[in-house]
Records
---
Amino acid sequence: MTDAMHAHEEATADFDLVVIGAGPAGMAAALAASRGGLSTLLIDEQPAVGGQIYRSITDTDAQRERILGPDYSHGAALAREVLEANAAGRLTHWSGTAVWQVAPDKTLHVLRESRTQAVRGRAIIVATGAMERPFPVPGWTLPGVMTAGAGQILLKSASLVPSTPVVLAGCGPLLYLLAAQYLRAGVPLRAILDTTAGTDLRLVLRHARDLLAGWQYVGKGLRLLREIKAAGVPFFHDVQQLRLEGHDRLERVSFTAGGKVQVLDCQLALLHQGVVPNTQISWSLRARHRWDDTQLCWLPECDEWGQLSVPGIHVAGDGAAIGGALVAALQGELAALGAMRGLGAGDAAVIGRRAAELRAQIHHHLAIRPFLNRQYRPRDSYRIPADEVMVCRCEEVTAGAIREQVTIGCIGPNQTKSFSRCGMGPCQGRQCGLTVTEIIAQASGLPPQEVGYYRIRPPIKALTLGQLAQGDA
């Protein structure tokens, strides 16, 4: 970032705390901080608060709430409290605002109303949530193939649903949730292709105590499965060798299940194999990260308050580790208490007692997570694809090209980026980063921790030179 670029940005506006992301973690953090007396700015790209899980919660109706279920409706009270606090001036909410750079001195550069602007906080909470794990299988780039998350966004934001029978393929609770939501909306389901190997009784016995502690989550999952079964949806288990086929668009899905080759005609398939933390901002800050072999992804290293290795910057919610909406809200409040503590605001004893309560609740909700991580662990073949499969959709780089680069000495994603532009497209490596790390690890024999990740540089989100130039001096 040059001085000439900075000259086109507005004068810095200061807040005690800037929260990035208005999902459950961000909303809870902003509310807790404002109640604690901090001047608080809540920034989000969407036109309204809610994040992905509670998207459009402030502009929904009874029909949509019935389709989406009680977990979605749970966010209404939190969103309403944020709107009331913003209207009363207790916090500031900037909607439609994209953060394209965060500096270690806690200066943020944002794109707001097509203009660049700088804002500085004494502390920052990154609550950017999760993103879907890449699912690179043959044909995943064909028109007619989307992610389950994309399908849910259309349902939540615009009540748009498929008009043709849809195939849902992959693993993880979201797959079952979307299936149930589509059934309530009257969407015909062609089939569900579950890529997990099924429930291992030994795994259940090993995690019996965790499952009892998380009985609400178990019950919720069983109810979803009963709802799907009652609808008579074809359900294939232990799906392997998944391929999406067609010429100019998706025409059929082929796979093996129960030792038999199956082929289903379809025009729309939604893929999903779990979510992973969105770590683009924490990587851009050069914060320390570690490879987690249970969640098969990178996690930012945080202290007990969610603070990164960069002082004064915290991470809360699924951006720190996948835990779900309820845990995210608790972690958001905890991170806000950590920011208050770091800034010398509030009563230390009160903060300590509330933090202990929050950590106990978080521990309770996360009890089932080890079981879920094992039960819905994506297969190696669905994370580390064959040579002909496209890995980087932006720059059209295949898995085979990455492996060839390893043979000539590339042992990290940044080297492969130099050779092939892999990770240099509009998504900035979001859709290929994990896959590239694991391909290189497998091909080189190195652990993912040594392979590393892309060196993320600003702009984190794309902006034009014209938008940059329109910032006020």
---
Amino acid sequence: MSERVGRDGARIAVVGGGIAGLAAAVRLRDRLPADTRITVYEQSGTLGGKLRTGSLAGSTVEFGAEAFLVRDPAGGDSAAVALARRVGLGDALVHPATGRAALAIGGELRPIPPGTLVGVPGDLAAVTTVARPEAERDHDGGRPLLGPDEDVTVGDLVRRRLGAEVVDRLVDPMLGGVYAGRADELSLAATMPALARAARNESTLRGAVRAAQAATPRSPGAPVFATVTGGVSRLVAAAAEASGAEIRLNAAVRELIPVPGGWRLVVGPTRDPELVEVDAVVLALPARPAARLLAGVDVAVGALVGRLDYASVALVSLALPATAADLLPTGLSGFLVPPGEGTLVKAATFFTTKWAHLRRADGTVLVRASVGRYGEEHLLQCSDDELVSTVHRELGALVVGAAGDGARLPVPVASHVQRWGGALPQYTPGHLDRVAAARAALREAYPSLALAGAGYDGVGIPICVRSGETAAEEIIKVWGASRA
């Protein structure tokens, strides 16, 4: 069947029901006339993408993204905090009870040195407890570290300037915790934009770090992260409601076809497709499915978008008896593991230490481990029970090492494994230029189609929210011009 909405009431499709798509829908609702019809098409049976709250042993636990930054790098509230306030969840925001984390090095937990920029130090003396910087490498050559349009991997720049240990023991585990990737493969401009900007003016890496930090000052004692009491899925549900959009679950968009004045979407099964015509589209999908749809619109744009690869990860949550609390390092929210340590676990969070609102009267301890790095997907090809067993053993070895002889991590009373296949984008050098080229081509030929999501603009809830809102603004600008 086919339907078309007249010009008196624009119809806009948001393809993808993750937080980027929902943020786009909210912005469209806020800025366009009340008779605008917004429909969110989500292939799965659940909204939220990588935001998913679940239950473990009677406690609320995040099975996906756990928290978000409070401040925007440019100043003010982050886009995630602003969205939470917009949808009525401002009073539900809470901050960690502790933000101190550690690095697992040589079987022991060492506090992460303060004052680094994603592990890159501006003060070399501050990181000597975990790595030995090669200070002589970071000489002043009299010209900026990077050219005006140059992009390199994070590892390339830091190894050249500070040596291997800073990369292997500090930068790699921090990037691995966010992207499940490696410093030697990830774009500096895409993953550390503030440092990339500073490196185009500064002649030493230490100077670039200090300049980047000065450009985004933090108030001492101000919280860095926040989450939502009751789970981040509340943000998903509230955004969906605030958008006033029609939500279509289990509705895969299989084709995107330009038609005069708008777009035709082919939705649903091949044998009985639904044909829907709309005025504009926000494409808020991961890069690969987006590339498949774009291939029928513009082959070159589809190829640009489709170059992005992804890492797969699994999140293993454990509920441990109260006796485990005596084994956890005092005051630590969790730890990161450098790839060279040889463990499957790359990061762990002690939920009931980090978040006061998750602490239980019966003392049950909630821990979550992240496993899987880019290029190591084969290590995840085992059963959930095997993953739980491996995580429990590796956590036990680290915790026991800190607690002393005779200590043993108790057997979990409950566990949960959440697998995220192809979840985390791997931004290689030149990523931002490729995205800019794709968007420029669409803006020129198809201005009523906008791209949004982590596959383009970066990971993290605030970035995804901002990406969705920016895509919505592109549509609003075009639609406003068409009505003038």
